[in-house]
Amino acid sequence: MSFLDKLIVSALPVVPKSIVGQFSKRYIAGVGLQDAVRVIKELNKKKMMATLDLLGEDIQRESEADAMKARCVEMFREIQKGGLGSNVSVKLSQLGLRVSTDLCYRNVKAIVEQAQAMKNFVRIDMEDSTATDETIAIYHRLRDEGYENVGIVLQAYLRRSDADVRALIRLRANFRICKGIYIESPDIAFTDRDDIRRNFVLLMRSILENGCYVGIATHDEYLVEKSYELIERNKLTREQYEFQMLLGVRENLRDRIVADGHRLRVYVPYGEQWYAYSIRRLKENPQIAGYIVKSLFSRNGN
Ligand SMILES: Cc1cc2nc3c(=O)[nH]c(=O)nc-3n(C[C@H](O)[C@H](O)[C@H](O)COP(=O)(O)OP(=O)(O)OC[C@H]3O[C@@H](n4cnc5c(N)ncnc54)[C@H](O)[C@@H]3O)c2cc1C
Description:
Helices cover 51% and strands 14% of the residues. The chain contains twelve helices and eight strands. It has helices at residues 3-11, 17-24, 33-45, 62-82, 101-117, 132-144, 161-169, 193-209, 221-233, 251-259, 274-283, 286-301; strands spanning 49-54, 86-90, 122-124, 150-155, 175-178, 214-217, 241-246, 264-270. α2 packs across α11, α4 (62-82) packs parallel to α5 (101-117) and α8 (193-209) packs parallel to α9 (221-233). Bound molecules: flavin-adenine dinucleotide. Residues 125-126, 153, 155, 178-182, 217-220, 244-246, 249-250, 267, 281, 284-285 line the site of flavin-adenine dinucleotide.
């Protein structure tokens, strides 16, 4: 990121929420579940699948974690009612991980059971490195109890991910591989773009050569090309993997992947807690962040 980009990104917290909201519309389906349902219907029409995400993390109270669980369960009912091509992504800190492991396990298990009853699937997002061990342990526990309709995410920037992938291949895990979005120490994470890309390809290779399912979550054309090569080399059918992208990001690339005959799933976030998510997205896109900061100044100047 250039110095100017860094400057723009550092100015984001002083931008009024209403302005961030205007620019964030492309990344968020809306506040209510019905907003997300509408977006998913549009995506399905374009032959794209979805994964629904209720925004909100780092829940500190049991009652809030239980309420989040209830809303995730409701999401599956809505998906079934609307005949939508969508599964659900959850964050464990949203389901009480920071309160107690048992509470979190109870909640995620209830969601996975609901998904199972509706022949659907739950993806457990990966959060910052303070949650990695517990997230993997909870995933193991679910699989040990016989739940197959659940997948995990590993981050290519973490040095440990190669070992984690190898261990999880033995479980026949269903993976999502992404670069990783949190700020982590260089002791545990690659920080150089090429190292992260190299590790992303390495992880993908291990997973695909061992016949596990993978969601390839990236907007990086280099990695999309590398994935195409791996898919071809391993003679995979289109049911053995999928590409995944975030709502509102690089729609041209998204269309091209679908036109090339691959399956693609769009991550569709919605909910009242859209602000933190939007800031994370905008930090990845200094160009749009730049428009926001500019609009702030022109507003002040008028
Ligand atoms: C479906 C999905 C699920 C994810 N789940 C997780 C998770 O569970 N845990 C986790 O830590 N991270 C997750 N991520 C985020 C991920 O780790 C990366 O931070 C993010 O995808 C950016 O990396 P990239 O591979 O797209 O490459 P980048 O190099 O960041 O982006 C490639 C190109 O895409 C464009 N681009 C990227 N972001 C934006 C944007 N916001 N707006 C416009 N253009 C943009 C830019 O042109 C950029 O040059 C997820 C990402 C996706 C797509």
